[in-house]
Amino acid sequence: MNPRIKGLSDIHRTSPALPKPTASSSFTLFPVTHFDLAATLNSGQVFHWHEQDGVFLGLIGGELVRVSQPEPGMLQISPGHEELVSRYLALDHDLAKMQRTLPKRDAHLKRALKYSPGLRILRQPRWECLATFITSSLKQVAHIRQISLTLRERFGHPVATVNGVVLHAYPTPEALAQAGEAALRACGLGYRAKFLHQTASRIAEGNFDLEAPAALDDEAACELLCTLPGVGPKIAQCTLLFAYERLGVFPIDVWIERALRELYFAGAAENVSARELREFAVTHFGPFRGYAQQWLFHHARTSGTFSRLRKVV
DNA sequence: TTCCAGGCCCATG
DNA sequence: CATGGGCATGGA
């Protein structure tokens, strides 16, 4: 056992410590509209960004990036990263146009949209997104973040040191396959360790091509991803939405399921089958329902306006 | 202490 | 095809 490997509780105390941005750091100003950096990076799509006083520091692939939003219409981006960041943050998505395709008379969606109108669907690296969501099943967002950071620290390539804090890239499939199931389990993964290890191994050995789903339609891509261990419809759809630009998929997790039942089937919520919920989502929210899903999810989780839905930070 | 978490797998009707 | 139990771990 490597003595440098600390217990999870120690990791939790130390790893989220934010590297302080230096006062002299330069930046590029980048005008934006319909964009909310904090809502986007804190909406449960991604789990590794460090935030302090509105400044977000993190890795996009293997690149250290610093982003902040000093005013609604302006981003500060670390120099040289403008293109990388705008692609990752999907600044080219025409939110106004997509919002016009949403159902007109939906007060619930309208409320969620008003809560965080600038929340965008990211373009994440495929493997990082898939692997993170494999570790997400039956876990709270805060714990997914812990697991993600621990995996990075133990098996990811160190990219940069900022004020004494080392930031690591997400470990490659090869690194996780080589690490072994037991070492993954020691990161607090529980039963998910086997799934993550098996999926990483399959990809590392060349028995699954993460680019293959990109050539298929949404349904076929989902079925293909679901052939991987630990990947079912929900995780496959989150991956398609957050890493394959499939804005028409609608992942249904426990939050969305309760929100849909409570908001759209009030009174008969207990009698609605899972099949009916899926049908409703597809027919009601339109071609960009992935966005609708994310606005509803973020509002349901963090607004505290639901009586029966517990607020989790 | 008990309940629950951005579910999946597998065994039954 | 739909439903139910089991599953590891840690925070509330």
Describe it:
The chain is α+β, with helices and mostly antiparallel strands and 313 residues long. It folds into three domains: 105 residues, TATA-Binding Protein (2-Layer Sandwich); 118 residues, Endonuclease III, domain 1; 59 residues, no CATH class. It is built from 15 helices and seven strands. Strands 1-5-4-3-2 form a five-stranded antiparallel sheet. A two-stranded antiparallel sheet has the order 6-7. Helix 6 packs antiparallel against helix 12 and helix 9 crosses helix 10. The chain starts with 7 loop residues before the first helix and ends in an 11-residue tail after the last helix. The N terminus and C terminus are likely disordered. The structure holds a DNA duplex (13 and 12 nucleotides).
Lay out the secondary structure:
Elements: H1 8-14, E1 28-31, H2 37-41, E2 50-52, E3 55-60, E4 63-71, E5 74-77, H3 82-88, H4 95-99, H5 107-115, H6 126-134, H7 141-155, E6 158-162, E7 165-168, H8 173-179, H9 181-189, H10 192-204, H11 218-225, H12 233-243, H13 254-264, H14 274-284, H15 289-302
Antiparallel strand pairs: 1-5, 2-3, 3-4, 4-5, 6-7
Helix pairs in contact: 5-15, 6-12, 8-10, 9-10, 11-12
The chain binds a DNA duplex (13 and 12 nucleotides) through helix 7, helix 9, helix 10, helix 12 and helix 13.
